[in-house]
Amino acid sequence: MCVLVFGRQPGYNTVAGGRAPGAAPPDIWFRKPGSYDCTLEKLGCLRRAGIRSVIMTTVSGTNIDQVPGILDAVVEAGADVFAFARYCPTSGEKDVGIEPLRYRQLLADCDAKFRAYQAAGCRTYFNRKDHLWTLYEYETGAFQLPAGAEPGMIYGGCNCGNCHLTILPTGDVYACRRVQNSRVGNVFEERLADVWIGEMERYRDYGRFAKCARCELLAYCRGCPAVASGRDGDFYAADPQCWKEVG
Ligand code: SF4
Ligand code: SF4
User: Fold this and answer.
1) Which ligand is nearest the CA of 157, by number?
2) 20 to 30 A from 32, CA-CA: which of 17, 147, 167, 210?
3) Which ligand 1 atom sits nearest the alpha carbon of residue 216?
4) Cβ(160) to ligand 2 under 6 A?
5) 172-174 and 166-167 strand pairing
């Protein structure tokens, strides 16, 4: 059994802040006061009950400097899995607020910590969730383009249109829960199979990716179109944190 300590319910929130040793815990404005400590404290309850815990945090320009500290706190608290993803601008703001190379530096810093913790036998599994990890690992040599890959085949990266969808309690189907305006149907009104081979086609037009279509990592990455589309609703826009220069 896996419990995802995630969401916006008071007391069981994504760890959305970090703190320096000895400093007061951060209370993010959209969480209840004390949510940071409460989340970490509950990891012990889950462990004693034999339930696996997953901590996911959201990274933006506001808290990027705190993420390595959050990682340390999560390991110390004994979480089973840790991952982070980028904040997805869906409200008034249109920007994650992170320069591409600053984001790459975060990945490098976290990669070093992940490796050190793993070498020390740490119980936490580090999920490299953001697809820009593929770009990072391509540059470091940890990921190589597979020999014999079939042209036109999608092998990994963003799951939108190829292996996931979101169904809301209303029955509304979204291509991705993080892509605003990506409603593709309703399960109470049509067959899911029809939605999958019909409206979902709008999210499989890989040649339309403004930047990725010209990148050798197209079949393995595509960044996060939810973050890209946060700016102006264009699913196929360039990922704002992708630092790769493509011709
Ligand atoms: S251009 Fe697209 S596919 Fe290439 S590294 Fe950037 S986000 Fe990934
Ligand atoms: S749009 Fe982003 S969050 Fe949605 S499936 Fe693709 S990578 Fe994941």
Assistant:
1) 2
2) 167
3) 4
4) yes
5) antiparallel
**Two tokens at 50?**
């034999």
User: Which one-letter amino acid corresponds to residue 184?
Assistant: V
The CB of 56 under 6 Å from ligand 2? The reply is no
The answer to whether 36 and 19 have CB atoms below 8 angstroms apart is yes
What's the longest Cα–Cα distance across the chain? Answer: 56
Question: Rounded distance, CA 222 to CA 236, Å?
Answer: 9
CA dihedral 237, 241, 244, 245 (to 10 degrees): 60
Write the pLDDT tens digit of every residue in 110-141: 999 999 999 999 999 999 999 999 999 999 99
Reference 65, options 102, 34, 39; nearest CA is 102
pTM to 2 decimals? 0.87
Closest by Cα among 142, 55, 59 to 105: 59
Core vs surface per residue 206-215: b (16+ CB within 10 A) or e: beebebbeeb
* Beta strands 52-59; 2-5: pairing state: parallel
Contact between residue 216 and residue 106 where contact means Cβ atoms under 8 Å apart? no
